[in-house]
Structures are given as structure tokens and as C-alpha cells.
Design a protein that fits this description.
Largest sheet: none
Helix content: 55-70%
Strand content: under 5%
Radius of gyration: 18 Å
Number of strands: 0
Oligomer: single chain
Length: 255
């Protein structure tokens, strides 16, 4: 199963781990392992990446960053394969992504003698880039009968699925909003009418996918493996230059 229908799939450069993620999900389908277990496991992989950075094991750090990206795809694949959608899993996934991203960049700043505030700026840039990708991706899914666990506008807690507690959904939703609200609202203000588009062409979504978290982590892993740890933070700041370009294409060309 996929987040998008087959006719609407595009080349997503941030989703390189999907084949392995599907393999993992198929192997776990008939076990007691659920999607939340996989989500927690990708959190562990992120922590191991940070530890590897601290020990200057940069190749190992890159491995755990990519593993984290694969497991990040595997939790959703397992949830869909078992027909067990979960708002708890959806919000926990996003919360861990955000916390790990800031931890990655602060760790890189610390061990490369980069100013702490530059790492915070890089984090803000990285989150804005990822939010732009998610914004357009969720709109596409909603407009093409794709997976709709994620909402275009996350303004209030959704009704919990039968297998989960509403109190847990509410708690995680509030944390999610605390972490993501400023980024969601910024992207919405930059392109408030995107949701009115019937769909987005595949070439456009491929372009946007260069801001997907999977590709961001792949770039981070590449810089670390090459020993270019000092370039990670300035790169993600400069990488934001594509944001106005992508939004302008959407507004002026894809009306």
C-alpha cells in the first residue's frame, strides 16, 4: 500500500528507503510488532547517529541517519499493511522527527565548533524546507484519494481511531502543534491557496521532494561521510534559497 494512488506516484528523491521499508513491513506483518514500535526504533537510530557524531564516527553516523529514514518509512508501511491507522503514531513520528533534527544540528555545531545560534537558524531553515514538502504532499494526497491520516490544516485534535485513546491523541497533538505551528502557518501564509489546486504535476512534486526529510538526512549523511561536518549547518541555511523559487512556480505556473 502507498500514501498515493499508483497513477499519482512521482519520483520522490526523499523516499529512497521505501523498497527496504516495504520489505521490513512485510516481514513484520504477522508479528506483534506495530507501527509505533518502529517509530520508537527510528528514534533510537537517531540517538545512535548523535552518539556517533560525538565520537567522530562519521560514516557510522551517516549509516544511522539513513537507517532512521528507512524506519521512518517502515512505520507507515506497517500501519497500512496491518490496516491499523493511528493518530498516536502519526504525531509521535512528527514529534521525534523535529526533536531529532534539532539534536542533529546542535550536535554537529558542538563538535565542529560552529556557533550555537547558527545551528538554531539551520534547524529553522531545515524545518521550513520540510514543511513546504509536507504541505504540498498532503494536499496532493487529499486531492487524489490518497492516505489522509495527515491533515492539510492541523488545527484541532482528530477523533481517535477505535484502537487508541483520545487522551493520548490530544496530548501528542498539542505537542505537535507546539513544535510545528509556526512552520505550518508560515508556509500557509506564503502559499494560502495551494489547496485549491486540482493536483500537482509529477515534475513539480519531484522538485519539491528535494526538501523531504529523507533527502535532507541523506545530504547530512553524505557531508558527514566525506568529513565535511563543518559544511552541514551553512549548507542547510543556504539550501532555503529554493523556497521562494518553488512557491513562485506553484503560484505563477500551477494556478
Amino acid at each position: 500500500m502507498s500514501k498515493l494512488t499508483s497513477e499519482n506516484k512521482f519520483i520522490d528523491v526523499s523516499d529512497y528507503g521505501r523498497p527496504i521499508a516495504k520489505f521490513i513491513a512485510r516481514r513484520l506483518k504477522n508479528t506483534n510488532v506495530n507501527a509505533v514500535h518502529i517509530t520508537l526504533l527510528f528514534g533510537l537510530s537517531g540517538i545512535l547517529a548523535i552518539y556517533s557524531i560525538a565520537e567522530s564516527y562519521y560514516w557510522t553516523a551517516g549509516f544511522f541517519l539513513i537507517l532512521k529514514s528507512i524506519l521512518d518509512a517502515a512505520d507507515g508501511e506497517l500501519a497500512r499493511l496491518k490496516a491499523q491507522p493511528s493518530f498516536v503514531g502519526r504525531y509521535l513520528d512528527s514529534i521525534l522527527d523535529c526533536l531529532l533534527n534539532v539534536a542533529f544540528l546542535i550536535s554537529i555545531a558542538w563538535f565542529s565548533d560552529t556557533n550555537f545560534w547558527w545551528s538554531i537558524l539551520a534547524f529553522l531553515c531545515m524545518q521550513t524546507q520540510g514543511t513546504l514538502y509536507n504541505y504540498y504532499h498532503v494536499i496532493l494526497r487529499h486531492s487524489t484519494a490518497g492516505e489522509i491520516t495527515s491533515q492539510i490544516f492541523e488545527k484541532k485534535p482528530p477523533a481517535a481511531y477505535p484502537q487508541e485513546k483520545q487522551s493520548n491523541v490530544n496530548f501528542l497533538f498539542n505537542i505537535y502543534r507546539l513544535l510545528y505551528r509556526v512552520f505550518d502557518e508560515l508556509i500557509y501564509k506564503l502559499d494560502p491557496f495551494a489547496f485549491k489546486s486540482a493536483t500537482f504535476p509529477k515534475w513539480f512534486m519531484t522538485l519539491v521532494s528535494f526538501y523531504g526529510l529523507g533527502f535532507q538526512l541523506l545530504l547530512m549523511a553524505f557531508f558527514l561521510a566525506m568529513g565535511w561536518i563543518g559544511f552541514v549547518i551553512p549548507f542547510f541555511i543556504a539550501y532555503s534559497i529554493l523556497i521562494p523559487f518553488i512557491i513562485t512556480i506553484r503560484i505563477k505556473i500551477l494556478k
